[in-house]
Known about the structure:
mainly alpha
Amino acid sequence: xxxxxxxxxxxxxxxTEAREGRLTIRMDLEKFVYIDRDCEYFKDQIRDIQxxxxxxxxxDKWGLGxxxxxxxxxxxxxxxxxxxxxxxxxxxxxxxxYEVMESHYKVIEDFQTLFRTVRERITGVDTEQxxxxxxLEANLPQQAPAQAKIFxxxxx
Length: 156
């Protein structure tokens, strides 16, 4: 089992196609800059959420009566169960928030790698495009990341 390959990432095939020049994306160079910045922004947000989930999982006392009878609190079995479930849901189970966010992080990394690979192929063969990209990366103003529309109603 030591020779097993690591699990493929979600976009591994597309990244390979891009590296080998079999994938074409038509896009302005400034979009590559913004996509890269947005990916970094979302990865930072995911890490912030994961930090919060770790703090929740490590919370010592919840004040629900979950096992502090020695301190004069009443020891409630249901409180212990709830705290255990919240800890596992925040971090420590296959479907915990921390773990789910890690899978999202990997997908964003793959998208970032894919677009960087395409951009590197474009700028690697065309020095004019490479110079233009470097200028855009250094001088394009920051923009707010794209906002996902969670709910949509007809006519809105």
